[in-house]
Amino acid sequence: MKEFQTIEQNFKVSYSYNLYTTEHLFEKDNPVFVNLFKNIQGASKVLFVIDSQVAEKHSSLVRQITTYCANFSEKILLKTSPLILEGGEQIKNNSTHVEYVLNAIEGSNICRHSYVAVIGGGALIDMVGYAAAIAHRGVRLIRIPTTVLSQNDSAVGVKNSINFFGKKNFLGTFAPPFAIINDKAFLRTLEKRDWISGISEAVKVALIKDAQFYSFIKENAELLKNRDEDAMQYLIYRCAALHMEHISSGDPFESGSSRPLDFGHWSAHKLEQMTHYELRHGEAVAKGIALDVTYSFLIKKISENTLDDILTVMLAIGFDLNFPEDEEQINEMLLGIEEFREHLGGKLTITLIDEIGKKTDVHAIDFSIMKQAVQLLKTKLNK
Amino acid sequence: MKEFQTIEQNFKVSYSYNLYTTEHLFEKDNPVFVNLFKNIQGASKVLFVIDSQVAEKHSSLVRQITTYCANFSEKILLKTSPLILEGGEQIKNNSTHVEYVLNAIEGSNICRHSYVAVIGGGALIDMVGYAAAIAHRGVRLIRIPTTVLSQNDSAVGVKNSINFFGKKNFLGTFAPPFAIINDKAFLRTLEKRDWISGISEAVKVALIKDAQFYSFIKENAELLKNRDEDAMQYLIYRCAALHMEHISSGDPFESGSSRPLDFGHWSAHKLEQMTHYELRHGEAVAKGIALDVTYSFLIKKISENTLDDILTVMLAIGFDLNFPEDEEQINEMLLGIEEFREHLGGKLTITLIDEIGKKTDVHAIDFSIMKQAVQLLKTKLNK
Question: Which residues of B touch A174 (CB under 8 A)?
């Protein structure tokens, strides 16, 4: 009988969305939120999910949102009161919270042309984003990140996730948001440690991509530490822009093996897990960067001057760059290299730097040199 | 302070995959499966999931797969024996089976550069595809559909799903496969009802897109009914090609409101649910098409001759086009219109036809005319 030819399928899917920067998003006359719907006919259903700490510290927020949406009722339809959920990494540790959000999506008749708006830190946004991505094969997500880390990194990306089988981000999808809105008013109520911790992602992206941005961070280290708003606003803006540029110019859904934005992250993920997420992601990333630049020096990719410069800047910002003393713990941490490869898939690819602002990939890590790096870092910190 | 500009993000993601047609895929010298890996370095991990009925009817399949992979061990690494799971819609009704597959993915260290190969009908492929799509944000999926319906329609698309909250396909994602392989040997062991039921999707796509293909189906109705392999092979090939063309030329991830490939599906989904999936999807779609072409006639979009021609062809293939007698059940079925809109989201958009091979969208359905259509269809069938 006749043989049939192979049918080839090729297509592209376009994504387009904006990151807006504003202050007091839900104040009466702020047009940013309602303008998201300006090209959409009729009133769109929106389900809000808010981090309980944010709702507590901004005690008029829920009322403001309700009033704001009522004022713009021809564009926005609030079917239920905002859900208030605890933030933090533990919300990603099982599927109970995902089902809670799915339940609200179903109960509010949120469809693929409706919206979930999530206000909170990176963990809450990851979890709610995952629920939104799997409901009806994806309802539209508006991310309103409230921490430095989520405003400059996690919320501007295209991923969502929860932890499963005790593995960080085991479940998730790639799902670009409908929009992201950074509201700087939320940063004012952050604990000091959350203000500082998110800066590590800016150091990371500066080190691999932008020497000028690194100089900005270096010159403003003290201001950043002391909560200067202007310095922080520029840091967030530039860091977010570099992340977004990377995503759109490369391999947005990570089909390859290289993931330079995960510079410093292999040990960070493992340290977070080992401390049961006592360590914040940003704090762990700072340690991870310190370790991988020390390793970069030991394998002769950067000079000792460069290494010292980076460590000095990170200490000036206020990062704690210490590692566990115990050798067993260090050995456990090194298992993070294989876990990192496995989650990413493909060939082991660890990003290091050749100079400030220039990344380089390696495909093997020498464990004994990495252990030397831990020791050398300790020696330098004790000087 | 300085205001920061909105950051605009725009990018495209490319997808590329093939549908292969073969016979006896895992026979020793069949190159189709191993060739999937020809451009990939080293041995790729593959986890097989097989429909238990398929494994039973093709009792040497599991052994064949094991031998085949062992023969090509430099390209394919089988870490565990194939999972054998029951097929059918009930496998989509809760998340237990998804977690079972996720567990195997985790246990076999399947990463984003490894593969899940699923052999079975549309429901199993939907469920396993969903598990693969959410693990590590998407591991590669090879679909090997074994029914007419999955070979010509569901497995060639870009969706996966499970049912949740009692709603069909409430959870799912858009996730193009790595490859699809149609093996015609699997069709030989289908029950008669499964051989016939999948033909409805070919009638559907012919009616909305391709008058010539409709003529082929009309001329071959008897042969198709009597399990002629050549006629069926062409039907599957052309139907799959039309579906794939539609996906790549339009709106692959369905961001808009129109979904012409769901012609006849609003009542089909509801009837499936009302019969607790006693009715096969393809059988329900045949009824749904019959109803919507009758409605198309009543609102003067097609002539009575055209209507009669379509009904005659569908009856000749062997479809049962009867609807429930009970008026309450018809009323319940009509609720399917709103559920269809809600799942799809956006504006109600129901596809009808203007003539054979030409679709038309309407944005409202007149319930009393739809009830008349049920009656008229009954009268015509009793003639």
Answer: 137-138
